[in-house]
Amino acid sequence: MGRRRLKLERIEDKSSRQATFSKRRNGIFKKAKEISVLCDVDVALIIFSSTNKLYQYSSNSRMSKILQRYYNHPAAKAASPSTQQDDYSSFLTCEELLQTVDRKLGEPLSDDLTVTDIMHLQKQFENALIQTRETKTRLLLKSISSLKEQEKQLEEEKMMLQEKVEESKRKGKGKRKRFAVDLNVMPTIAE
To answer: Per the CB 3.0–4.6 Å rule, which of 66, 84, 156, 173 could disulfide with 44?
Structure first.
């Protein structure tokens, strides 16, 4: 006896729907991992549940790199020419990750969390931390380079001002005549 064919329609029973979603989600993650390993390709999988929970999987490279490749690909640009991504829109912020973990662990269905789900969340936190550090480092380096450029400009300005001061001192010596009188010496009066 084989498996019976399932009609593709919404499952009305909430607990059955949640159980099916959890099983199928794990199954699609497994399939994404398999195709990534077998075919040596980069895979990014993003799922939003009906309660707006985020589930994501990315193969060897980080999700942000795969999404950036997607946004930079000509086919993706042709499909949505009005989409413009700023530098940080593809990053999942730490706050969003904390909200996701809070929702997952705070729900009565948190018993459905597997070790893989928790490890996946840990990986997301580590990736967010790495991205945050990279962004911080990039911004600090940018700030340092702009400050060095400012320092260079200020040094040049200082040299120009010093040259002007020296030049004005030289010009001032030629125009003014100075003489010195020694008041310690008393003139002698011949008697």
So the answer is: 66
Q: Which CATH number do you get for residue 80?
A: 3.40.1810.10
Q: How far apart are CA 58 and CA 134, in angstroms?
A: 19
pTM: predicted TM-score of the whole model, two decimal places = 0.39
Judge whether 86 lies within some domain: yes
φ, ψ at 88 (rounded to 5°): -110, 5
Give residue-wise pLDDT tens across range 77-98: 666 544 444 444 445 566 666 6
Strand partners, 45: 57
Asked if residue 26 is part of any domain, the answer here is: yes
What value does the mean pLDDT take over residues 145-154? 92
Q: Is 153 inside a domain boundary? A: no
